[in-house]
Amino acid sequence: MTGTILGTYRTKFNSDGTVARYKARLVAQGNQQEYGLDYQDTFSPVAKLPTIRILFTIALFYKWSVQQLDVANAFLHGDINETVYMRQPKGFEVASNPNHLGFTQSQADPSLLTLHRDSVHLYLLVYVDDILLTGNNERAMAELVSKLQSKFALKHLGPANQFLGIKIERTQDKFFLSQTLYAKSIIQMVELHKCNSVANPSYTKLPDSGSDDHAAFDELKYRRIIGSLQYLTLTRPDIAYVVNALSQHMHKPAPTHSVMLKKLLRYIQGSLDFGLPITRSTLTLKTYSDADWASDPDTRKSTSGFCTFLGNTLVSWTVKKQNTVSRSSTESEYRALASATADIIWIKRLLSDFGVLHSQPLDLYCDNMSTIALANNPIFHARTKHIEIDQRFVRDHIQNKNIRLLPISTVDQVADIFTKPLTTPRFKLLRNKLTIAPNVQLEGAC
To answer: What values do phi and psi take at 144, rounded to 5?
Structure first.
């Protein structure tokens, strides 16, 4: 074995407190972990969620099948009787076959492994012990699965139909990703399965904290619900803003937050069958960026929101409270724009691993004309020194023709749904533009 090899031990308990079993774990070259900080943590390859959506989008575009593999626990906890090289030692590389199976790691997402050999292109995505495999050659995919099964305890689950608790429904020109059963379990947990549903998950005006005496959740249950809802946002970006807002009060939720949470749960109850469709269109990238200036009444920090479409498919979105207070709406918009630029450049780099190249500038939409003017202005002003890094970052990508900053009306700004509470008609309009709906034929997509 190479490097520092350590063993750590952990006791696993049953729900009644009795010892279930003693677990021993091998820590390979893990001497950077600190006791009391992250010594008990385990680290596994975890694919980025946009990468998963992008893989399905590209597979659908080229009409490839997506296969699912699962590494059995017997392999994960098996006895090791052989010499194990946690990192290939220097001097043992085979010059003619340095990567053995031929796969290389993506620089954008290390959990994505790609193989390009002659006309064969295979893509393997790893999320701990769950694996997605797609490519343009069914025979090569079958041979790869056979080779892996000969070395590891690996289950071939066939076409992907459930991944990370997400149900995957496939038709000829569409994947549909949903978490209906998971959403139902959350509603059952809070005993709201008989409640009246609502059409909007948020309040445009904060409710009176005493308006519903039965809405209060204790702190422990509040945190548990919010944690569950954060996972639900994997296929439900329509609730991302409200979940983010409520997550900021997990340390000490007020009665008002419980009222807001109950309304969100009532909205979910009425939209259990909603999900995220992946449709076959083009592989053109476009991003929408927005910000709500000084929206937090306690800290006066702004909220950034942006989303990226690959063709008509929503593949990435973010809702985040900005780290610092902005002194103007232009400044808050610019901070959001810099984050959106970083995201779309990362996605462009990831797509290149799939052989999808974008030689033309990528479209980035913003509804603040002052921000657009500032981004295109080659003259640096002292009044913008406090956002100099963001300004130069965006402007460099504009000058290098990586992005193209375009104006858009506030009415058509899709990212508005990620930055603030909206009226019900406005919320439904933007939800439709996000393509979030039940699994039926969709109209009016972006």
So the answer is: -65, -45
Going from N- to C-terminal start, the domains of the chain cover: 49-55+62-76+95-160, 178-269, 281-408
Helix (H) or strand (E) holding 199: none
Query: Using CA atoms, how far apart are residues 16 and 410, in angstroms rounded to an integer?
Result: 56
Domain 49-55+62-76+95-160 has CATH 2.60.40: no
CA distance 12 to 424: 48
Q: Which residue has the tokens 């295979």?
A: 122
Task: For 120-150, give the DSSP string.
Answer: EEEEEEEETTEEEEEES-HHHHHHHHHHHHH
Domain 281-408, CATH number (from 3.30.450.20, 3.30.420.10, 3.40.366.10, 3.40.50.300): 3.30.420.10
Beta bridge partners of 279: 174
Question: Do residues 209 and 256 lie in contact, with contact meaning Cβ atoms separated by under 8 Å?
Answer: yes
Give the pLDDT of the chain (446 residues) as one tens digit per residue. Answer: 444 444 556 676 765 667 776 766 555 555 566 666 666 666 667 889 999 999 999 999 999 999 999 887 644 555 666 666 656 566 666 665 555 678 899 999 999 999 999 999 999 999 888 899 999 999 999 999 999 888 888 889 999 999 988 999 998 889 999 999 999 999 999 988 888 999 999 998 876 655 554 557 888 999 999 999 999 999 999 999 999 999 999 888 988 999 999 999 999 999 999 999 999 999 999 999 999 998 888 889 999 999 999 999 999 999 999 998 988 888 899 999 999 999 999 999 999 999 999 999 999 999 999 888 888 776 655 455 557 788 888 989 999 999 999 999 999 999 999 999 999 999 999 999 999 999 875 444 44
- For residue 312, give the nearest of 344, 345, 353, 279 by alpha carbon: 279
The encoded tokens of residue 113 equal 């492994």
Location of structure tokens 């309009």: 429
H, E, C per residue of 350-385: HHHHCCCCCCCCEEEEECCHHHHHHHHCCCCCHHHH
Q: pTM here?
A: 0.84
DSSP character at residue 206: P
| C-alpha 115 chain-centroid distance | 24
